């Protein structure tokens, strides 16, 4: 009972647990910054076809300057080269085959003239987004789906990371994988910032997604396995709030850093700090016990006891007692479980399928809404702040409801309410849409 008495059955949070929980919060604050980063790094600025002025155009330009007095010349010149869309904004993917100088008068329609694709590239409005992957690699028009493809690649990395780093953590330890994933995020995230082309960017983002998933899994595992059972729910809740606060951090960073290269670096390099202080974080004593490392486990437990002001209790621990506890733990886990055990009985299969469906639908709706906030046609930074602020009180209410009413009723109510709120956006004015969607997403 050495481990249980010192850690699991403890009635208070010691200095070690408080410090560990604090350290484990920091990497989670930037999780949302990576998951939702393409809201800003892949934002689509207003754009139109680029056109060049040659010698044959100078006479027409001179005539227009003389006729208009030169007012708004540079602002209006595009009317002769680019048609207008139904909203009377420049067409984003078409230009006139030949300049239509008569349109500079401003009283004629641009419909009916021959057009062609943007053969000379695009010009982007950089007043809001100085630089994005869209403007850097021209991911517009025929390549507009590349933005979503890049995010899918990142999420594929998250999926692969769950399988890879989950197994590696059981084999090599939680701390070892946490160290590796922190370093991987720094390296791959920085690599994405300096990507020479879109293909390289997607590759770096894939491995960044892998690292993010491994970090999240082992961050939570390491924190929970060192916490007294009495406080695990509280610590888990606090850790989950960190990702919500991260949405606000992302909005602030993106507002201050408008170039996607620097924003990518700003959310990746801090994980080197995580890599450095993770050397101080001890490996899970439970993992050490289950993996036949009683000497290391004993030294670790004595160190934790000393930090918690229980040095006397720590000195009383013996290797023999820990080995006996290890034998009991190993005996209790002789039958190796796999994912297929979740489908072994009809009841377990039903529960697994229901939870999987809820998790899939919730994640699908969350990312589908969160990654497309630019289509609300409001200030992207403000919308992100609204989404982040809305999440916090709703998460608190959900946690209170789980305690007072129960998990099943709370889960069913939240899923039903989210669906109704999102559906309601079809029948309300545009000004109300963001309010409903932000609550439905949460």
Automatic annotation (TrEMBL):
Which ranges carry the Major facilitator superfamily (MFS) profile domain? Answer: 94-442
Q: Is Membrane one of the keywords?
A: yes
Q: Where would one find coiled-coil regions in this protein? A: none
Q: Where in the cell is it found?
A: Membrane
Instruction: Give TM regions.
Output: 149-170, 177-197, 203-222, 234-255, 261-280, 351-369, 381-397, 409-428
**Protein's membrane topology:** Multi-pass membrane protein
Example GO molecular function: transmembrane transporter activity
Name the GO cellular-component terms.
membrane
The reply to whether Lipid metabolism figures as a keyword in the UniProt entry is no
Provide this UniProt record's keywords sorted from A to Z. Answer: Membrane, Transmembrane, Transmembrane helix
> What protein does this entry describe?
Solute carrier family 22 member 6-A-like isoform X3
Classification from the root reads: Eukaryota, Metazoa, Chordata, Craniata, Vertebrata
Q: Which gene is this protein's source?
A: LOC117365862
């Amino acid at each position: 009972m050495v481990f249980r008495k010192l850690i699991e059955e403890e009635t208070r949070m010691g200095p070690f647990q408080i410090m560990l929980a604090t350290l484990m919060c920091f990497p989670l604050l930037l999780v949302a910054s990576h998951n939702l980063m393409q809201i800003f790094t892949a934002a689509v600025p207003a754009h139109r076809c680029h056109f060049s002025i040659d010698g044959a155009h100078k006479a027409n330009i001179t005539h227009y300057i003389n006729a208009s007095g030169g007012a708004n010349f540079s602002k209006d010149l595009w009317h002769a080269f680019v048609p207008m869309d139904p909203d009377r904004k420049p067409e984003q993917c078409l230009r006139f085959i030949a300049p239509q100088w008569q349109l500079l008068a401003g009283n004629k329609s641009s419909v009916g003239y021959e057009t062609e694709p943007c053969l000379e590239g695009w010009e982007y409005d950089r007043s809001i987004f100085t630089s994005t992957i869209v403007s850097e690699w021209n991911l517009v028009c025929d390549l507009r789906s590349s933005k979503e493809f890049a995010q899918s690649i990142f999420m594929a990395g998250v999926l692969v990371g769950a399988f890879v780093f989950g197994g590696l953590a059981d084999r090599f330890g939680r701390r070892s994988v946490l160290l590796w994933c922190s370093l991987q995020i720094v390296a791959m995230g920085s690599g994405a910032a300096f990507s020479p082309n879109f293909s390289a960017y997607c590759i770096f983002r894939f491995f960044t997604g892998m690292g993010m998933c491994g970090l999240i899994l082992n961050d939570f595992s390491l924190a929970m396995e060192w916490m007294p059972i009495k406080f695990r729910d509280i610590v888990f809740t606090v850790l989950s709030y960190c990702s919500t606060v991260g949405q606000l951090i992302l909005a602030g960073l993106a507002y201050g850093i408008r170039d996607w290269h620097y924003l990518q670096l700003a959310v990746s390099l801090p994980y080197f700090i995580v890599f450095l202080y993770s050397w101080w974080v001890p490996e899970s004593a439970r993992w050490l016990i289950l993996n036949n490392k009683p000497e290391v486990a004993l030294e670790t437990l004595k160190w934790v006891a000393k930090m918690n002001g229980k040095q006397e209790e720590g000195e009383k621990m013996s290797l023999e007692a820990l080995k006996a506890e290890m034998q009991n733990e190993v005996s209790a886990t002789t039958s190796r479980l796999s994912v297929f055990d979740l489908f072994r009985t009809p009841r377990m299969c039903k529960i697994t399928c229901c939870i999987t469906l809820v998790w899939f639908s919730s994640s699908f709706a969350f990312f589908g809404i969160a990654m497309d906030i630019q289509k609300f046609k409001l200030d992207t930074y403000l919308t992100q702040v609204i989404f982040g602020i809305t999440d916090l009180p709703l998460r608190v209410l959900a946690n209170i409801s789980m305690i007072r009413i129960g998990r099943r009723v709370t889960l069913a109510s939240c899923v039903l309410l989210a669906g109704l709120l999102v559906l309601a956006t079809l029948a309300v004015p545009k000004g109300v849409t963001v309010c409903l969607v932000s609550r439905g997403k949460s």
